[in-house]
Design goal:
Elements (H helix, E strand, L loop, with lengths): L4 E5 L16 H12 L4 E3 L28 H6 L5 H5 L11 H22 L2 H12 L1 H4 L2 H13 L10 H4 L3 H10 L1 H27 L3 E6 L8 H5 L14 E5 L9 E6 L3 H6 L3 H13 L2 E4 L3 H4 E6 L8 E5 L3 H11 L4 E3 L7 H10 L3 E4 L20 E4 L8 H7 L2 H11 L6 H11 L4 E5 H4 L29 H13 L19
Parallel strand pairs: 1-2, 1-12, 2-3, 3-6, 6-9, 10-11, 11-12
Antiparallel strand pairs: 4-5, 4-7, 7-8
Helix pairs in contact: 7-10, 13-15
Length: 511
């Protein structure tokens, strides 16, 4: 039986701080302290990879690498890689939004300064750690391809790899050997960035454990068409002779969009993957489980059946359902990696094959309370929840609960009041208490709902190409009053016990 627990959804980019974007330094530690004081034992993050166009963590340039923009300047200075003056001359960034263009330009310069310091006078222990990192089996599968991919991307002005010279696009061995020699310094630079990321992230993970908090990560089912993964493993994707996608991923019309969502990611050749025991997927989960103990599988329904759309389509309306790998993939993952703590994002158009796969794998699914009151006896209402589940007020794709309440119609508001009680003056409190009182073993709240924020704090609007992922928290919102409120609710509903009373591992087995 899983232990009841409470957690928070907050991506590291949304942490407060003076460096233009949240990072893995002291403000992250402060958040973990606050979360622990609030009775929280799970921290959910979005994908941690390096972002590309649109800055979406669900469209990363690698399924394995970490995002250097999350590196803490303060920790770099503490390691002797930056002078104190580098932290004194910080531009005046917006406090509550990430200005990605300015932050990326500034932080890239800062990280290159750290690289120069390292090469000229780097501490000996860091040099030894870097060498060990580059040679370790954990990195061997993906790091060389990633570092060369990024070095080439810079050489060609950021162009997509399909626009590179054909010999490089097709990875002809002689051409790769030549550019590896020519770009050796740039390749070493990108290895260095990954070394720093995983070094800092390992510190964060240890800090979370010290506070009794486990980290719930997130794996997008698909990868970006312009990614190191597609470039280095083209055989596992549906590509034509030129390397362009034949069909792409998306979903048919749904709650978020009347024309569906056309994501544009290349689809997998599941038959090819199956022939070598789904090796790429095994290595992908192995790498991600280094960063987090628990993993949410985004768009889980795609493992049962996925929506395939012609690459030249303008919307996702005209597509076809195709069978996914089903249980065969998860059998291969378990055989290689052992028992896995996974959460299925079983949202969207859920058909019997999806439900059967979730049940066969005994995975917790998700219940979103903002979806619960569109009509009577809805599947997401608490009386349909099950113990092996995760309940949310909303996710990163939803409006905040305050923003949602301000936009829903009177009939929906009436159902909320009739079902949950109250007069509607505190809709956030109603949904939070409903989540905590649910039989679902894990309740996760976006911190925006804990803070009572409106639509201005929304993280992502699906189908909207710009203006997403930029929200940042205000430092003073992490206050003692809100922590006390959550802790009391978590205690009352059996989601929090003092460490030592019972196994406080968040989502593990009872001790």
């Amino acid at each position: 039986m899983r232990t009841r627990a409470a957690g928070l959804l907050l991506h590291p980019t949304s942490l407060p701080g003076r460096f233009g974007i949240g990072d893995l330094g002291p403000e992250c530690d402060a958040f973990l302290d606050w979360a622990a004081s609030a009775g929280q034992t799970v921290w959910q993050v979005l994908p941690l990879g390096p972002t590309g166009y649109g800055n979406s963590p669900y469209g990363t340039l690698s399924a394995f690498a970490g995002n250097p923009m999350l590196l803490s300047p303060e920790l770099l200075a503490a390691d002797g890689l930056l002078p104190g003056s580098a932290l004194a001359n910080v531009p005046g960034f917006p406090e509550y939004q990430v200005d990605f263009e300015r932050v990326i330009a500034w932080k890239d310069g800062l990280l290159r300064e750290a690289w120069r310091h390292f090469r000229s006078d780097g501490p000996g222990h860091l040099r030894a750690e870097l060498q060990g990192f580059g040679e370790a089996p954990a990195q061997r599968y993906w790091l060389p391809d990633w570092a060369l991919f990024m070095a080439l991307k810079v050489r060609y002005g950021g162009a997509a790899f399909r626009e590179w010279p054909e010999e490089l696009r097709r990875r002809q061995p002689a051409a790769l050997a030549r550019v590896e020699r020519e770009l050796a310094d740039d390749v070493a630079w990108h290895v260095f960035l990954q070394f720093l990321f995983f070094r800092q992230w390992d510190r964060v993970k240890e800090a979370a454990h010290e506070r009794g908090i486990r980290i719930l990560g997130d794996i997008p089912i698909y990868v970006s068409p312009d990614s190191a993964d597609v470039w280095s493993h083209p055989e596992i994707f549906e590509l034509d002779e030129a390397g362009d996608p034949v069909r792409v991923a998306g979903v048919p019309p749904d709650y978020f969009s009347a024309t569906g969502q056309l994501w544009g990611n290349p689809l997998y050749r599941w038959d090819v993957l199956e022939r070598d025991g789904f090796h790429w997927w095994v290595e992908r989960l192995r790498a991600n489980l280094r960063m987090t103990e628990l993993l949410r599988l985004d768009h889980f329904r795609g493992f049962a059946g996925y929506w395939a759309v012609a690459a030249d389509a303008e919307t996702a309306i005209d597509g076809t359902w195709e069978p996914g790998p089903g249980r065969k993939l998860f059998a291969a993952l378990s055989a290689e990696l052992g028992e896995l703590d996974l959460v299925a994002e079983d949202l969207g158009k859920i058909t019997p094959d999806v439900t059967a796969l979730v049940e066969a794998l005994d995975l917790p699914g998700m219940k979103i309370l903002q979806f619960a009151f569109d009509g009577d006896d809805q599947d997401y209402q608490p009386h349909h929840h099950v113990p092996n589940g995760v309940v949310y007020t909303g996710t990163h794709d939803n409006d905040t609960t305050r923003g949602w309440w301000e936009k829903v119609d009177d009939a929906t508001r009436h159902r909320v009041r009739a079902y949950l009680g109250g007069d509607g003056t505190d809709p956030i409190g109603l949904l939070v208490r409903a989540a905590y009182a649910s039989v679902a073993f894990l309740a996760i709240l976006p911190v925006q709902d804990v803070f009572g924020l409106g639509s201005e704090a929304r993280m992502n609007t699906p189908g909207q190409g710009a203006g997403n992922w930029a929200w940042r928290a205000r430092k003073w919102d992490f206050n003692g009053e809100r922590a006390g409120w959550l802790r009391e609710l978590a205690t009352l509903t059996g989601r929090y016990r003092q460490r030592g009373e019972a196994n406080g591992n968040g989502t593990g087995e009872e001790g």
